[in-house]
Amino acid sequence: MIILGLTGSIGMGKSTTAKMFAEAGIPVHDSDEAVHRLYAGPAAELVEAEFPGTAANGAVDREKLSRAVVGSDAAMKALERIVHPLVRADANAFVEDNRRKGAPLIVLDIPLLFETGGRDRVDKVAVVTAPADIQRERVLARPGMTLEKFDAILAKQMPDAEKRRRADFIVDTGGGMEAARQDVRRIIDALSPKAG
């Protein structure tokens, strides 16, 4: 089984690209979706213990949590110490489940794959990219996003050029959905066992 790591900076179209793999029948583990799931269950008690008042009825209130951690590196690190191991365990269970099922190819959607040392968890890496002006336009169109927030997020992420340099495959979403879908098909073809 080949494990493909899918990553890309904010606003590059990674979530859309992950959906394209899923639509093509490739099992995809989405780290962001896993966090949502964990916040609605297993992580809530741990988050509440670290950040009192941020969870209720067994679920994390993302707005309250955001207010508790944004702007504080120490708080963000404390939250990451709780969440990252849970997401990794969730991804490991996904990998093992698909290995048992005999899946030839799976995708782990890992937003900060290079930044968090996730390269050793995957066989190949696909980086989702787009021109900087398109990225900026997409991100600034998000509700509640400001230029300051965008710059702060970018400062924590490895530059796109460096991610592309380290990638085994590139998916360019700047040229529209169909071009990106063709990139996805090429990757699947390259990583799928050839029928003998």
TrEMBL record:
* Listed name of the protein: Dephospho-CoA kinase
Query: What family does the database annotate?
Result: Belongs to the CoaE family.
Answer yes or no on keyword Nucleotide-binding: yes
Locate the residues binding ATP. 11-16
Top-rank lineage group of the source organism? Bacteria
Task: Name the principal localization, coarsely classed.
Answer: cytoplasm
Its EC number is 2.7.1.24
Instruction: Name the chemical reaction catalysed here.
Output: 3'-dephospho-CoA + ATP = ADP + CoA + H(+)
What is a single molecular function from GO for this protein?
ATP binding
Chain ranges passing through the membrane: none
One Pfam short name: CoaE
Tell me which species this is from: Neomesorhizobium albiziae
Q: What does this protein do?
A: Catalyzes the phosphorylation of the 3'-hydroxyl group of dephosphocoenzyme A to form coenzyme A.
In terms of PANTHER family, this protein maps to:
BIFUNCTIONAL COENZYME A SYNTHASE-RELATED, DEPHOSPHO-COA KINASE-RELATED
User: GO:BP terms for this protein?
Assistant: coenzyme A biosynthetic process
Query: What is its subcellular localisation?
Result: Cytoplasm
Gene, per the UniProt record: coaE
